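hey m, so remember when u said the tokens were messed up on ur end? i reran from scratch. heres the input so u can diff it against urs
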Amino acid sequence: MARGNNAPMIDDSTSRPTDCFVRQTPAGLYCAPGGFYVDPMRPVDRAVVTHAHSDHARVGSRHYLAAEPSRHVLSGRMAGDADLQWLPYGQTITVGGVTVSFHPSGHMLGAAQVRMEYRGQVVVVTGDYKIDDDPTCQPWAPVQCHVLVTESTFGLPVYRWPDSTAEFASINAWWRRCRDAGKCAVLYGYAVGKSQRLIAGLDDSIGPIYTHGAVEKGNEAYRASGVSLQDTQAVASLSQKPDYRGAMVVAVPSAHGTPWLRRFGRISTAMASGWMAVRGARRRRSVDRGFVISDHVDWPSLQLAVQQCRPESVWVTHGYSAVVARYLNETGVHAIPLEGGRSVGSDDDVDSADDGDGDDQEAPS
């Protein structure tokens, strides 16, 4: 994209963006002419939300704008009196002279990139995103811009995802072995987003699929949005204890090691996470198996996204921002980190071994 008259200028002496209508503040990314924040970190008057995970869609703001496909997921996670406004993918709304639109990010159902245009300058905030195939949400598509604000949760060269079809085949093969050994398979994934993707990839001819209550709540929101999932039953809804041998239980990570698991008898446990790409991560989580399934871009996908969006400047946030910015600068792409290093607040940063949504912190049900 050619530089416009109001393209962003960079003060190299401070390595911080200047002359852009979007700026970083203690409350998050702020669009000054529009008077709104993108994924604010504290309650504000007007919030534009990329997706329904709790570290991006925080409660307490007065007004919210989000992508229409996130309606059932997001509304179920907000206070009942929250003022929520919905905008379909690709449609525009003007806020204070700023043209705003949402575009699929591929992270989870309803997740969106936020495109903002003001006086010829275009800024795109990716939110969390992935390029891999996922039958439970619309795929990521590049949006050209002057400034790209990208996450970097897995922004190290070591993070390179295997083929997801092969990884799901490995999950189902593990489940069959559990069934043949008379065990119950327990697969950990975050309640909303990751778990639904996992369930969509399970072969339900192997056995029945049961869920943690928080996972089933996410399933209900997905089904209400028109997403097809295999049949599941919440463990807490069962009137009689079934024979769990040969079954699959999809649970949140915080259930691991708790008395909740005792009801399933002999079990084998597994974690599905991008962190499983690193040797030792499975051992630290004390699970039997680790499967590399992530809802974020890996290192090569992040580089591809930058190439296809063709920004003149890249702002890197939520992860290994300094590493990614340094690499991009070395390859001729102007980039700056919005944090000095690995951030603590990202939704993949629970004990450095979980992938997805912070909702696993609730008590098992």
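this time it looks ok to me. The chain has two domains: 9-159+295-350, 164-291. if urs says something different then somethings off w ur setup not the seq
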